Amino acid sequence: MGQQTDSYTSSSQAQPQACCPTVPELSIEGLEDEIEIFTALANTTRYRAIRLLAAADGEVCVCDLAPPLDVSQSAISHALSRLFDAGLVDRRKQGRWRYYRTTSLAEEVIDVFDADRSVTDNE
């Protein structure tokens, strides 16, 4: 039997042709911040923590976040540090406690998620 080719290529073609040549190339440069945000929110504890902070009226102490998240203060501190590194929370230290609140970036991200949720709920 001879060599078979599919309908999209032939043995004489060196490069496959794109079906959608209008799709631009995407460079990773400039996307690092967005990737950092999504990576930070990809953990259940961190996502729930950011939701609790967004729903709170003002700053929240780490000691008040551990019980509703059912994790240790150490675990929530680690999660909040990751959110801080991603620019999603601000923090301040008072005595031995740290207080956290969401940043405007976090509020914008949550608004997008909520808007998407309301659209999909209405479909």
TrEMBL record:
What keywords would UniProt list here?
Answer: DNA-binding, Plasmid, Transcription, Transcription regulation
Xref: PANTHER family: ARSENICAL RESISTANCE OPERON REPRESSOR (PTHR33154:SF18), TRANSCRIPTIONAL REGULATOR, ARSR FAMILY (PTHR33154)
Organism encoding this protein: Halocatena salina
Matching entries from PROSITE patterns are given as:
HTH_ARSR_2
Q: Name one GO molecular function term.
A: DNA-binding transcription factor activity
Q: Which residues form the HTH arsR-type domain?
A: 26-123
Q: Which SMART domains match?
A: HTH_ARSR (SM00418)
Under what name is this protein listed?
Metalloregulator ArsR/SmtB family transcription factor
The leader peptide range reads none
